[in-house]
Amino acid sequence: MLYTIGIEDMFSPYTSITIEEAVKYCESVDVLGVDTETTGLDFLSDDIIMFQIGDEHNQYIVDSRVHSIIEFKGVLEDRSKIKILQNFKFDDKFLREEGMNIENVWDTMVVEQVLTNGNNLRYGLLQLMEIYYPEDALKMDKSTRLQFTTIGSKPYTSKQIYYGGDDIKFLPGIMKKQKESLTIHNLNAVAILENNAVIAFSEIEYNGIGFDPVPWLKLAEASKVEAGKMSLELDDMVIGDEDLKDFVLDQVQGDLFMPVSEIRKVDIKWSSPTQVLKVFKRYGLDVEGVGSTDLYKFSRDRLVSNYLGYKKKMKLANSYGVDFLNLVRSDGRVHTNFKQILNTGRVASSKPNMQQIPASNSYRNCFVSGYKDWVYVSSDYSSQELAVIAFGSQDPVWLKALEEKKDLHSVCANLVYGPIWVNAAEDDCLFFRDDGDGGHIQQKCECKAHKKLRTGVKSINFGLAYGMSEFKLSDTLQISTEEAGALIKTYFSSFPKIKKFLDSLGAFGIQKGYILTYAPYRRIRWFPKWKRGMTFKVRGEIERASKNTPIQGESALIKFRELTGRLRVERHLC
Q: Is residue 256 part of a domain?
């Protein structure tokens, strides 16, 4: 039954009750659907205009323009009750502005992503209704939602009230059907973890992070100046190359106030990929684009190297310059948005992408707590993915190196290269320094030859988590494909358990059409292209993803578990 609160209309077809009566009913049930309608999408500047709560039997529509919804705080924060929301983070941030933190959440959108591993891009309520309640979905008109942004102080229409009720009425049923699917695929544990994690991600998005634009803009200006110098160096290279003479102007035009040094003689706009591609083709490079991946194999060439350096500086000047300030919100803080479930099990960040902020501390130090006596702390796991590989393969060398806190890359290089590694040691090499117990401390050293050998093995170690082929290793190390293949072969002969482990993952994915992370969560990744008689290319893609997903996915699950646990502790302390 549909009930309204704060809607005074004697001719209304709905039953009007008090907010106390609605709260009393909500306190008596264990599962509640929750939703809000807002005046816009920004929780900092927009408001909740309608609040809906209830179950499949009774739905309560509150006109939040005339009634405070704080009366529902106890219900929303009661951990004994499940609160079901579609796209929890959106509603949660608005409700936090009202002073309420929802506990014990079931996000139907996130759970559907767990079931499909993020392969289905349509996760709106209407799409879930089409899956679980197809007949009722035909009657649902989601365009009604847009009417709330312009309603102002006008009374709700019957269509809007029924719309609000439908947004929560079907949520308990969707949850029940999702639970059945989770049980079939043994995904209950990972769904619980994701529902806990969505609370943490929402809180991070809501709180945001402080930002200091002054040093940020100084960095952008410095990058712009450096990019300008690099563009002039590129001009000089073009002028000095006979094959590129067609790009050099016969006549140049300036003005009386322009220094002679600033008059360009080259007809190339280095910021234009189309123009630069013509230059490189005339230069003799067989490339289809001018991205980093297109030019990587030619990066030793001076013209290519300088162009890649120019692009990097221009990106720092533009993407991480004045344009970035457009993403700072009205409270002076950066509020990123997390996409919680990628098919690898990891997380993506957007508006802005905080996972691609330049690694230099000069950039990262521009992000501050923004609160007096608070500090911003950055931390990460050490060799997390390598530890996951060691656990999965049970390779004794890897396990011992990690347990004894030795430098794994150097330990591996020692085994792969043997006498070459031993003979390359310089005086007082830290790797071969006596550990006082008849062995060596085996730490990263500064030996020039060791650094090069270690880099090659390190590329393989980390490449294992991404299904690296000899072609990719060849590009990474700037060596021939044959040399890369031989290095990988030598590597796996030194670590047969790792090869067996990775091969078994690849074979499982090709045979089953999906791959799993470790117990107890066992997140599943489906391969939509999988079928009997699939092409060699698809087979290769699935094999690489099958090797990659358990490593990356398990690493993400470990971080999720810590994130949700830490959030719980912090709330308890507060």
A: yes
Q: Are residues 451 and 356 in the same domain?
A: no
Q: How far lies 290's CA from each of 223, 276, 293, 495, in Å? A: 20, 7, 8, 38
409 burial via Cβ count (<10 Å: 0-12, 13-18, 19+): buried
Domain containing 19 — which CATH number? 3.30.420.10
Residues 34 and 175 occupy one common structural domain: yes
Q: Taking the CB of residue 309, how many other CB atoms lie within 10 A of it?
A: 15
pLDDT at 8 over 70: no
How do strand 337-339 and strand 333-334 relate by DSSP bridges?
unpaired
204 domain residue, yes or no: no
Q: Write the pLDDT tens digit of every residue in 382-428.
A: 888 899 999 999 999 999 999 999 999 999 999 999 999 999 999 99
Give the containing element (helix H, strand E) for 450.
Answer: helix 448-463
Measured CA to CA, the distance from residue 59 to residue 2 in angstroms comes to: 5
Q: Are residues 127 and 96 in the same domain?
A: yes
How do beta strands 333-334 and 209-211 pair?
Answer: antiparallel
Contact in structure between 508 and 546 (CB atoms under 8 Å): yes
As a whole number of angstroms, the distance between CA 474 and CA 487 comes to: 10
Residue 376 reports pLDDT greater than 90: no
Residue 541 inside a domain? The answer is no
CB 343 within 8 Å of CB 517 = no
The encoded tokens of residue 429 equal 């090499």
Domain that residue 356 falls in: 209-334+347-378
Tell me the backbone φ, ψ of residue 221, rounded to 5 degrees.
-65, -40
Is residue 77 within 8 A of residue 93, CB to CB? The reply is: no
State how far the Cα of 374 lies from the Cα of 541, in Å rounded to an integer: 46
**Counted domains in the chain:** 3
Same domain, 415 and 454: yes
Confirm whether 8 is domain-assigned.
yes
Contacts of 34 (CB under 8 A, 6+ apart): 52, 53, 76, 83, 84, 85, 91, 102, 168
Helix, strand, or coil (residue 406): coil
Q: Do 370 and 400 belong together in one domain?
A: no
For the segment 262-289, the average pLDDT, to the nearest whole number, is 89
